[in-house]
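Look over this entry.
=====
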Amino acid sequence: MLLWALADVNSMYASCEQVFRPDLRGKPVIVASNNDGSIIARNKEAKLLGIKMGAPLHQCMDVIRQNRVAVFSSQYTLYGDMSNRVMTLLADMAPAHEVYSIDEAFLLYPNGLHQAESHGRAIVERIKRCTGLGIGVGFGPTKTLAKLANHIAKTSPSAKGVFDISVLNQLELDALLESLPISEVWGVGRRHAERLGLLGIQSVKQLRDADIDQIKTQFGSVLCRTVLELRGIVCFPLEENAPDKQQIMCSRSFAHEVSDLDVLGSAISHHVCRAMQKLRSQQSVTNGFTIMIRTNPFKPELIQHYGSMTGMLSRATDDTLVVQRLALQVLAKLYRKGYRYKKAGVMLLEVQPKSFHQHDLFEPIQLSNPRRDALMQSMDKIAHRFGREKIKLASELYKGWEMRRERLSPRYTTRWNELPKVTC
């Protein structure tokens, strides 16, 4: 019998920080977003203190000081490398796997497992031994049921990190699903939960047993497939390759408000470069972009401005210089003198595969420029090998818009000069 597993790292970002700080084990740890603005990760001990996900960091400082909570700026280089290590290990533990997010992966066993729980414990032990990270594993006949099983594995003390929902008999399964709210179902968000509640559907069992035609009519085919998955019918297949993004966004808040157009343009140039690197990494081109700038909404005493403007290209491209030049022209029209801006961003629009995209009917088809293609490839290779900070456009070099990252930990696993030191 086909069997799915969902492996999910416990409190990924906070756990990565604790791996290299053994003095923090068993203590509350939180990770702040870019610019140290809001809380994006908490370990179990921090959650017990009532610290909420997404809460502004400055509003939690009393709790942080009173309980000696360790606070880190987000170090995505470290988290990404640790994630790659986990996913590489998981790939060896199943015939097929799908990386779902930075801390989650679906594992597929087409012929099932005779001892799924024992195998799950072997996965937990191997990840812990090789990376130092804790992980939960849930087994089920569909992705949706495996996701529910993972929730049980991580929240039930008796499960100890591993739970196989497929071994339950019908009475046990019904009792379990009746005890779980629909908010725990993969893909059921707050709005769906509210609408389902109006229909009297509040538990996972009630959702599983709901009228399928009514669900499809009122909520669409995606939730309909979720209901079928709760019934043990596979509707979400394995996706070994993540689908390409159709929009790519890059935005950041600044450490300090910015009034100068050149400094603001430096931030926009940086975001364009990063977004275009992501675009080329998936072999795509873009037809246009939107520039966004805003002042600080948390300072109502200042004059406020939120503006966005779209620029469309005459032909689709993956050339950073083409997009950057037009983006600065759009910014000049959007910018208002005398305003103090706190955030800027760029979103690439109408992203499509480079190998197949629609040309303009009224424009001659223009072949790409080999020299510019080679330049973009060289920029990407340098950034990949030596880091994105090693190659920049001149327009990126204005200072004053950088992020606040006062609690940044070392890149323990990817930089020789930042390796942890052991004194014997």
In short: The chain has three domains: 7-143, 168-241, 248-396. Residues 248-396 form a domain with the Dna Ligase; domain 1 fold (CATH 3.30.1490.100). Residues 261-281 form the longest helix (21 residues).
